[in-house]
Every structure is written in C-alpha cells, then in structure tokens.
Amino acid sequence: MNHLLFSRVKKQKYWLLILLGWLFLITEVQAAAGHAGIAAAHPLATEAGIAVLNQGGNAFDAAVTVAAVLAVVEPYSSGMGGGGFWMLHRAKDGMEVMLDGRERAPLGAHRDLYLDKQGEVIPGLSVNGPLSAGIPGQPAALAHLAKMYGRLTLSQSLAPAIRIAREGFPVDEHYQRMARWRLEQLKRWPDGQRVFLVEGEVPALGYLVKQLDLADTLAAIAARGHDGFYQGAVAERLVQGVRQAGGIWTMEDLDSYQVMERKPIRGEYRGMKITSAAPPSSGGIVLVSMLNQLAQFELESLSAVQKKHLVIEVMRRAYRDRAEYLGDPDFVSIPVKRLIDPEYAAGLTRSIQLDSATPSRQQPKTQISEGQDTTHYSIIDAEGNRVSATLSINYPFGSCFVAPGTGVLLNDEMDDFSARPGTPNVYGLVGGEANAIKPGKRMLSSMTPTFVENEAGIAVLGTPGGSRIISMLLHAVLALSEGEAPEEWVSRPRYHHQYLPDTVQHEADALTQEEQQQLIALGHSLKRLENSYGNMQALKLDIKSGEVTGASDPRGLGKTVVQ
Ligand code: GLY
Fold this sequence. Notes:
six-stranded antiparallel β-sheet, alpha+beta, 18 strands, globular, 19 helices, binds glycine
C-alpha cells in the first residue's frame, strides 16, 4: 500500500497556501463585496431576506423570512409541512448551535409501517400520500429562531411570505420540471392539484401560483407563534385531513413536537475549522470523517486520477459508517467521538489501495433519484451573525398531499428511515437498526449546513441533493482548501460514492475520458448522470476587512446579494 502520511512541515506550507488563496480571493472579488449577504435558492427569497436586514432585522430574522419565502416559492423543495437544520453563529458571544427542526415519526408509527404481510417494502407508501409524512418541524424552528435570536416580531419576518402566498409567484422552468415529475401524485389529492396544477396539468410559464390557505396558516403562525401551527384550528385541520386520507397523525403528535438545540459536529482540516450538522443529520460526521481520512495523505503528490480515486475511497468508508451507526441521537447511542476522531480515520484509510478500488459488500438493487429536492440558504449580517440552513420536504413536492384548508404541502420524509434494514430508499441509501422507524423518532438526514473558517476567512455554505449533499460539501471544502473563490466552491464538477450501490455517480464533466478509463481499470464502476446535481449557496466573510462575497450554484436559479 502506498500510504503517504501528511507531515507537520507540510501542514505549515498548506497554511501559507490557504492564506495566499484567501488574500488573492479578496482582491479578485472586491467589486462584489459587501458587509452582509444572502445566498438562497430563489431570487424572491434572497430579496425578501435582504429587505428584512434593511428594516433592522438581524441574520436570524432574515433566516425566518428566507425559509418562509422558500416555503412559498419552492413548494417542491421545502415548506411549512417539512423540516430542516439551522446552523447559527451569534457574533456577540460566539455561541454556535444547530436548531434541529427535523420531522419526527408520528406516535402511531412502527418499525414495519411500510411492509406487507410477507415483510416486503410496499412500493411508494413511504414516498407518496399522507402516510409518508413525518410531523413537520419547520414552523416550530422558525418560531424558536424568532423568539430566541431575532430582533423583529414573527409578524414582521413572515410578512413577505404571506404577501407572496396571497399575490402569487410566477412559474418558471424548474417548477415545471418538478411538477411534471410528480404530476401523477399531485393529481391524486384535490387541494394540491388545485394549487399547484391548472386543470390537472403543469401550469404555463409565468402562471401565478397563489396559495391563499397557506397565507392564512402563515398568518396564524405570525399571530400565535408555535401554537398557531401545532394547536388550534390549523392543527385540527391538519390532523383531520391526514386521517381522512389514510394517514395516522394525532393532535398529540403536533402538540408534543419540539425543536431541539444540538451541539454542532466539529472537525479540522489543514488548519481550517469545520462546524457542521449534528445527528439526526449524518452530514457533519460523514464530512469530518472524509476530511480526516484525506488529511492522512499528501494530496499534492498524487496525480489527478489518483486523487479522485482516493476521494471516492474515503467517501465509501464514511458512508459505510453512516449506514451502520447513524440515527436519531435521542433514540440510539452513536459513537460520535470515535467516528470523528482522526485516529479512527487513520484506521479506516489503512485498507485504501492507491492501485485498486475496495469493493463494497453486496449490491442491493436500487433506483437512485436524480432529484433537485431540498433547499439551502446562507446568511451573514453586518454584525457577523451567520446562518447556514438546509431545509427539506424530501422528494419533489414531498408527499404531494396538502391537508385541506391549510395550504400545507406535507413532506415524505418518512422515506429517510430504513423501511427495512438493508433495503435502499429513494436515494439508494441503506440503513441499519439505528435508523429503523420508532414512534416519535427523527429520521436520519444528509442535510449538511456548514461553517468553515481559518484565521483569514469564514465560509457559510450548504446544498440540497439527497444522499449526495455530503459529498458535495466535501468537494466545496477541498476547493476552499486550495484557495478557490466561492464561485468555484459552488460550481466545481461533482462525483459521488455512497458505499452502496458500489458505483461512482458523476456529472458529465467531472471525469475526463482518460480518468474514466483509469478509474474503471482500478475497479470502479461508473455511472454518468443525465443531469447535473446540487444547488449550493455559499458566502465568504473576510475577517480582516469584514467584507462578504458569495455565489449561488450555476446549476440552479438561486441568487446571491451582498451589500
Ligand atoms: N430528505 C433529505 C435528507 O434529509 O437528507
């Protein structure tokens, strides 16, 4: 085995390179710099968030606004019927915390909820309709964010989303693609069909999608906070609608939902401090594990293809641990300390051969979604508060079920549990007992809102993309460690391995023909994806000048504004 250890002397050299990279970056992008910024997946969300900052709101108020507007204008990605993770940094005292607004299984759920009498997974049941919906966490998280960290009232922060829900937003090509994909399911449920389709068809470009019921639900949250959603008329309509359509929610499910504050996962890579998502997201642990493994190698001495082979091998090992150990920390004991320990990573890399791929174990039959679901935004305000938030309703348009009279499109996040240990979900991910369904348990996620910092700068970043989220963060952190600018973090061509299936999925331009041949010769199986993937939203704060720059992934429609 050709195992090249990374020496202390070399580390100093990398520090210098990183520093020079940041300095170069400052001069290169100076024209577009400001002292606050927002990068979000939809221009209306970015603009609404900037307006709230200009009204005197802080990054946490803007985070409420951006999430709520995204819930309205990207109904295929996230929403009040879904959940997410908000990584917060408060400038005045350096406090860092992850708000866990992840959905939980209804109290009536059980391990075999999606299995038939023979113990086989019933296709579609955990992805379509109200039985696939976990109890939403986003309304609770936004109410908590505003109450604990914001400066404005919820009514002020939610006002833009309420207005856009009432006045409507124009359908674009991405909306059309997502609606076409889920057309059959959207047509199944009258409330969803009425709002998101026109006479049972995908609306024309520019058609205004108005969501009057959702506006009323948002207004109830604006008026009553957490209770506006989880108690009273909205809660009753949600429960009644879900149960009438075959779901199992109860008032107790809603009443007992609580947002959690979690300690972020921390790691280090070549002088950079990583702060990332904690369980029930697998993101931070898998990201830190991959970086710890890479830190064992002197990457600069490797050829381009050797480096890609190595990156694939560290992904394989970290995703294997994801499948084995990770789940809801309130239900299972996770060996977090060990999984993010550099010594443990060194052990993992001992089996890496630079001249051959390590086969993963048996190959389950799987169809992997190429969906652009989930969403992300990054915010830095002029005081230095920051938010990195990744939100989801899982599959495009979630479960496709809107609870009548609420306008709330429900998630299908229950599919992120392992319906049966070893059986892949829509992302081809397998899981073990740690992620089996239990009443009230949160399903394992890949969402990875992250901060990366060194003495010169701070990056705030994240992306949607199902199981590929974490490997996208790895590519971005590697670009960052090479001194690249935010434009490169978000646009670098991507490849991905998740242990099972034992396949390298890649964008068309991520591997040259020669690299493809060489990787196949090393024993890798390659799958070129039809479409590009990801929609990263990234900001960078230069510590010395206080200037903010950023970029939205060119694969999406997002917008970055700095001021
Ligand atoms: N639903 C995607 C994730 O949480 O990973």
